[in-house]
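To: structure desk
From: M.T.
Subject: fold request, one chain
Message: Could you run this one when you get a chance? Sequence is below, nothing fancy, just the single chain.
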Amino acid sequence: MALRPGLLPRPAILLPAVLLSALLIGAGAHAHALAVPDWTLADVQGRPVTLHDELERGPVVLSFWALWCGPCLKEQAHLAKLATELRGRVTVLAVNVDTPRSVHKVAPWVTARATTT
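Reply: Done. Structure tokens follow.
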């Protein structure tokens, strides 16, 4: 399918493709053959989240975002819905990459969105 000039695919259209890629990476006999670096980060409540622990439970959708990124903020609503719909089957991790100067704004932003969804 050709796109008309000036039109780009919408994030909501691309999300299923990203999800499918994540499912393919996290599923099947070859999943353990992938060399994915392990890391542990704190969630907004300060609890540690380790990538390899999450991968052992099943497929993981990994999103990197920042408060200054408009498309990232729009994507968060879609990811929250996806996490709810696929709870227990797929883990959705949204990793914030804001600078130390603005990272203190992340938890309040996440908390405010959690109470409105």
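Reply (cont.): The CA atoms of residues 7 and 101 lie 36 Å apart. Let me know if you need anything else for the meeting.
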